Amino acid sequence: MNATEARTRHAQLAAEIRAHDRAYYVEAAPRISDFEYDRLYQELLDLEKRFPELATPESPSQRVGGQPLEAFRRVTHRLPMLSLEKIRASDQPTKEEEPDSEKRKRRQDENTLEELRAFDATLRKQLGRSAIEYVMEPKVDGVSIGAHYRRGKLELGVTRGDGRAGDDITANLRAIKAIPLELNLKDPPELLEVRGEAYIARADFEKFNARLEAAGEAPFPNARNATAGALKLLDPRLVAQRPLRAVFYAVGACEGIAFATHAETLESLKKFGLPTQPEWWLCRGIDEVLECYSRRVVCGYHEEKDLRSRVPYDIDGIVLKANSIGDWERLPSKARAPGYAIVHKPIPWITPAETRLRAITVQVGRTGVLTPVAELEPVFVQGSTIARATLHNEEEIRRKDIRIGDTVVIRKAGMVIPEVMEVVQSRRPPGAKEFDFLAHIGNRCPACGGPLAREKVSAGDKQEVAWRCQNVGQCPAQKTRRIEYFAQRKALDIESLGGIVAEKLVDSGLVSEPLDLFALELAPLAALNLGSPEEPRVFGEKNAAKAIEALRRARSLPLARWLFAIGIPNVGEQIAYELARLHRDFQDLADSGLLREIQAGDKASPALLEELRKRLEANPGLRAEAEAARQRIGGEIARLRAELEDALSRIEQGAEAGAEDRAALKKRRDSLKGRIKTLESNLPTAGLSQEIGAVVARSVLEYFGSAQGRTLLKRLKELG
Ligand code: IVH
Question: Which of 36, 413, 436, 676 could join 32 in a cystine, given CB atoms 3.0 to 4.6 angstroms apart?
Fold first, then answer.
């Protein structure tokens, strides 16, 4: 066999092996026996031994190669890897029904559907459209990954990490046979990043765990855990031995390729030979989405009808995405989650549990807001024991008529904090009294005895009315919460000073405000009594030294962390990050012309653009992102313009067309014009997160203008 013949045969073998890998790992429909597969594979290896130049990186023989890594390289995502906003399935109290009746489930279903309708209404309003097309698809409970294909070849694999940067796990993704090393595409684009989830199929997981147990090793608690563990292995040879698979459901960075709709994306990925989900639904409007539920396409109360038994992996919700990708840019995003999608959990998938409400305690938050908390007889729900659940606020308790001593239904929906859904009326103890919030706390702050007032507070996106302790400066609970907030991991990461330590620091008078922490000295901190006067238990020398070291490190943490730590209203983690990217330090923020212009609300004022330009100039990373955003928006505008052009010429030619068609065309023209205008108005400030709006700007400026803010600036300067 000469070199040319070898090349031809090698290409043939490689193509066959790829097709069989696909049939086996992606379609779960093997076409040949293991024996036959091994024979093909051996022939390929033999050829490569004789003609080593055939062993290119894309050869099926090269999935696992090279030495184990020392550590993973960190890579910044070209586009952040976002998360999904969850719908909270709210519920109404029931009086006469039993907690598990079909009727009750149906009604809860109805409520979830209401929330989906509300999501649709928001989108329609934001887009100025009467109907929106959606794709509904399972939310895969695996581990997020991204795979970059450059000119069709797998070039880079990454984990999600913190959403901005992840680990380079290219070698590990190459070891997963469900992930093609090369796309099935004649004329591949310069770059296509696909995003999805690595997983271990339920059936494989059971076998894998059984093997571990047989070998005397600890089994994994669930498939997700086992997947995460496998992806973190530094030796790809070990990864290849784990039963990992993957599905892809989105694209990230692209060059030389674009998709108009999400449905088109999913179809294309499948065509390119990538594993995609076997079931998803294109719905032409919210009614079709809801119909999917009433026809029980996704889940019913019978297992055979449940999607969860139709797919090989775990799913933990249903994602609803607007289909038109052009719309995505136009929908304002939330902190870390895009506006075009939402995830929810169908009611039959949420396991409720019943337990007794022992007491209601009232917590005082960082800003003095009082939150009632249900103290429960501990129960085990979906993998963990729950002894407390939020009751949100006074109004919620009244609405659900929750009384101490009641048997309550609690629910843990995904990662959401457990909540009390409803009371089992039939099991109410005789004599249980209606709960009176104010009387319960004697009309005063339960922490400091200070006066209360009813105030509007923002809870997530919603405005709520809540009782609030007015003793802002002195209330020990508020002080403690502020210190805990300041010291939490996402803030300055001085974790040894959280919880009971924060409380005792405040009680003992050593610390009153977060910045006091920096004046702490070793001896008094070591002597801090965490127990009671009768049974003292000191913090200790070692812990104190650790805390002081953590405080020293905190001084050099980036501005974003500090900004988050001080807890300015409306400035969460994400916004702090955005603000910090645009500013040098606290003083720069306090004097920020940019924020002043944003507060004024004119998105295209010359002063604002000039400010933005200066700040982008000073930060190359940010400038690149802004440039990319501008290009994306520019591309979308060009596409819409072409559509508009088409509509205009058809209106012109179509003098003979029916009046109805003309009306439809004109409507389309106007809608296109509107969309182009919105995008054009976004263009100048591309790169400036939409989240930093007038509300945030005002909040930050007000904070630094206040006595509290000014003191903070002064003290920060003193601390250097
Ligand atoms: S869309 C902007 N679709 O869930 C949103 N995500 O909680 C991009 N996930 O980080 C993701 N199944 O890792 C999308 N069908 C699906 C998904 C899915 C699972 C993951 C994803 C995301 C997380 C959000």
Answer: 36
More confident residue, 300 or 204: 204
Residue 412 Cβ < 6 Å to ligand 1: no
pLDDT tens track for 351-364:
778 999 999 999 99
- Read off the pLDDT of residues 464-521 as tens digits, 9 standing for 90 and up: 889 999 998 889 999 999 999 999 988 999 988 888 999 999 999 999 999 999 999 9
Q: Cα–Cα distance between 296 and 302 in angstroms, integer?
A: 10
* Angle of helix 694-705 versus helix 593-600 axis, rounded to 10: 130
Ligand 1 and 197: CB distance under 6 A: yes
Minimum-distance ligand 1 atom for the alpha carbon of 338: 2
- Could you give the CA distance from residue 372 to residue 389 in angstroms, rounded to a whole number? 9
Phi-psi category of residue 256: left, alpha or beta, with phi > 0 → left and psi -120 to 50 → alpha: left
- Kindly report the number of other CB atoms within 10 A of residue 558's CB atom: 11
Which residue would you say has higher pLDDT here, 341 or 657?
341
Q: Specify the ligand 1 atom closest to the Cα of 141.
A: 19
Q: Does residue 539 line the site of ligand 1, with CB under 6 A?
A: no
**Rounded to the nearest 5°, which phi and psi values hold at 441?**
-110, 15
Decide if 46 contacts 304 (C-beta within 8 A): no
Q: Mean per-residue pLDDT for 247-271?
A: 96
For 103-127, the pLDDT digits (tens) are 666 666 666 678 889 999 999 999 9
Instruction: Please work out whether the CB of residue 225 comes within 6 Å of at least one atom of ligand 1.
Output: no
Residues with Cβ < 8 Å from 649, sequence gap 6 or more? none
**Alpha carbon of 87 to ligand 1 centroid (Å):** 14
In which band, very low, low, confident or very high, does the pLDDT at 347 lie, cut at 50, 70 and 90?
A: low
Query: In angstroms, what is the C-alpha Rg of the chain?
Result: 29
Backbone angles phi, psi at 134, to 5 degrees: -125, 155
Residue 542 has pLDDT above 90, yes or no: yes
On whether the CB atoms of residues 254 and 78 are closer than 8 A, the answer is no
Token pair belonging to 413: 């929906």
Ligand 1 atom 2 nearest Cα: 82
Sign of CA dihedral 219, 225, 230, 234: negative
Its pTM stands at 0.64
What number of H helices and E strands is found in the chain?
25, 17
pLDDT tens digits, 47-81: 999 999 999 999 999 998 778 888 999 999 999 99
Ligand 1 pocket mutation pick from 79, 81, 82, 83 by most atoms within 8 angstroms of CB:
83
Q: Of 139, 177, 400, 479, which residue is the catalytic one?
A: 139
Find out whether the beta carbon of 83 lies less than 6 Å from any atom of ligand 1.
yes
609 touches 630 (CB < 8 A) = no
Cα torsion 452, 509, 569, 333 to 10°: value is: -120
Q: What are phi and psi of 191, to 5 degrees?
A: -145, 135
With a 6 Å cutoff on the Cβ, whether 319 touches ligand 1 is: yes
Q: Which amino acid is at 491?
A: A
CA of 317 to the centre of ligand 1 (A): 10
SS3 320: strand
Q: What does the DSSP 8-state code read for residue 22?
A: I
Helix (H) or strand (E) holding 140: strand 134-140
Find the 84 Cα to ligand 1 centroid distance in Å: 6
Higher pLDDT: 713 or 300? It is 713
The pLDDT, as a whole number, for residue 386 is 87
139 catalytic? Reply is: yes
Tokens representing 594 are 């940019």
- Residue with CA closest to ligand 1 atom 1: 250
- Does position 99 have pLDDT exceeding 80, yes or no? no
